[in-house]
Structure formats: C-alpha cells, structure tokens
Amino acid sequence: MLEIDHLTRRFGDLLALDELSFAVEPGQMFGFVGSNGAGKTTTMRIVMGVDDATAGQVRWRGEVLDSDRRERFGYMPEERGLYPKTPSVRQLTYLARLHGIDRASAAATAGELLERFGLGDRAREPLEQLSLGNQQRVQLAAALIHDPVLLVLDEPFSGLDPVGVDALSEVLLERAAAGVPVVFSSHQLELVERLCDAVAIIDGGRLVAAGNVEELRRERQRPTLQVEVEGAPGWEDALAGVQVLRRDGATSVLALTDGSDDQQVLAAAQRAGHVRHFGWVRPSLAELYREAITRPDPADAAVAP
C-alpha cells in the first residue's frame, strides 16, 4: 500500500500541498485529478524523491520511503526525459541495465515492450523520428522496463490517439490485475471514470474528495431524476422538496432534497401528462469533480467572521 500522510509542501509563501492524505491499495487503479496547479505533479515528485516535503510522510508497505524502495517504482514524469537521438530499444535496454538486469534479459524485455506498444518495427529508429504519441509509448515502456512494484504516471494519456489510449489502458489494467498499484493523473475524467477503482480530487493542494466513484456519488450528489412528460411544461414547478436543475423541451432534470419521495414525483408527472421517461441520473465523474471543487471548505467556514 502507498500512503500519503498529511503531506505539506511550501515554496516560499506558496502553499502547494496542504496536509494531503490518501492511500492506494495493492492492485488498485487510482486516478489523481485536479486542475492545473492543484498539486498533482508536486505530490508525485515527492513520492518519487524528486522533491522534498515540508511536512508529512510517504510510506510504502508501512515503511517510510527511501531511495532503495523507490528504485522498484516505475515513474513517468510530466517532463518527458528520454534521449531524442537514441533508438528506443537502446534506451530501454540501458535503463533496464541501470536497474541491475543482465544485458540479454534487458534487451529481450525492451523488445517485448516495444512490440506490445506496436513499435517493434521502429525499435532502432532515433526517438525523435517517432510521432509524439509513439514517443509517449516509449516513455511508458521506460517506466515498465524493470517490472515495478508501483506505477506513478503523470498525464500518461496526454497526446495519445484512441488506439494508443486503448493499448496503454490494457497494459495498466494488466499490471493492476497482477497486484501493482497504479497511480495516474489525467484531465480526461471520462477515462479516469472508466479505468479507475478509486480517485482523489485535489484543489489548491487540499484533498476535497476521495473514494471510488460510486461512493462519491452516494456522498456528494443529491438524488437526481430525469423525467420526460409530453405536453405539460412547468408541471414540476409546484412540487415540494424538488429543485429543477435544468429543462430541455419536455425533459426535466430534478434534484430531490432529503425526505422527498420519487414516487410522489412520478405520480405528479402522470397526472400532468404522458410520461415517456422516468429514471435516476448517475452523475459522471466530471459532475462530481465540479461539485467537489466548488463546495465551500468547512475549515474556511469555521473561521469566517
């Protein structure tokens, strides 16, 4: 298990991380989301030892991280760092050798990974001759070359076409199925929702929500109905305990407050006209994200005059 425990990072007067805490379980696909500048990259850099925390700890399997433990991690930084004029297979072989893998095994693993990412026939071309998406695949292969026990990936899907996204997703899901925790940041919330077992949402260096998406739906979102009633505009205006979130022709999206009864809403809709659709709305991760980062912080409310 990877544990982020009250992690704080200051850059002068700037508070980049504010007692950030969450945990990533073995075999978990974990999405780390937030706006630009929210603190995602800073957190990952501290996990990998590239940056130091001002306060707090990062633990792996219950032990505070050190350089020896980090050597078994796979890292894909936001700033891609491979050599543009060196062939991919040579770079990957070299990186594997740095991790103590013998030359023959290193070369074989490099070739296997490039084949897996559809680059076997271009393995001996300089990296700079590959498209940006293919360079991205090589960068991920570099993170995987030593069979890491943890993957920490900063925007790994950036710049990939749909085929590349599918190939990368398949590899990451396989690693998770083998028990490897996979932590990745992404602005593609639909992709995070599809792939991840759990997410952490941060804003301004603070954790504002964490858990699996279904838990976040239960905790953060009011029960919401979508109802389509023919020929009865405004039928829902007089309903007690119901807020109209939006209307589109005959379709209304309604939020129910505590104690509201969906069956009473259905009965009112049936009295008003022909009900063509009535069902619960499952909010997307994007909607949960917007709700989480716009919700007032209780700590701020406690000190408000």
Query: Globular, elongated, flat, extended or rod-shaped: what is the shape?
Result: elongated
| N/C terminus separation | 41 Å
**Helix residue percentage:** 25-40%
* Beta-strand proportion: 25-35%
In CATH terms, what is the fold-level topology of the largest domain? Rossmann fold
Counting helices, strands and paired strands, the structural category is: alpha/beta
Strand order of the largest sheet: 6-7-8-3-9-10
Q: Extract low-pLDDT stretches.
A: 301-305
Summed up, what is this model?
This protein has helices at 40-47, 67-70, 88-98, 103-116, 132-144, 162-177, 189-195, 213-220, 262-272, 285-294, 298-303; strands at residues 2-11, 14-24, 29-33, 55-60, 63-64, 73-76, 150-154, 182-185, 198-203, 206-211, 224-230, 242-248, 251-256, 274-280. It is of the alpha/beta class and 305 residues long. The two termini are 41 Å apart.
Please characterize this protein's 3D structure.
The structure is a single chain. By secondary structure, the chain is of the alpha/beta class. The chain folds into 2 domains: 2-213, P-loop containing nucleotide triphosphate hydrolases (Rossmann fold, 3-Layer(aba) Sandwich), CATH 3.40.50; 222-282, Alpha-Beta Plaits. Helices cover 35% and strands 28% of the residues. It is built from 11 helices and 14 strands. Strands 6-7-8-3-9-10 form a 6-stranded mixed sheet, sandwiched between helices. Helix 3 packs across helix 4 (103-116) and helix 8 packs across helix 10 (285-294). 32% of the residues are buried.
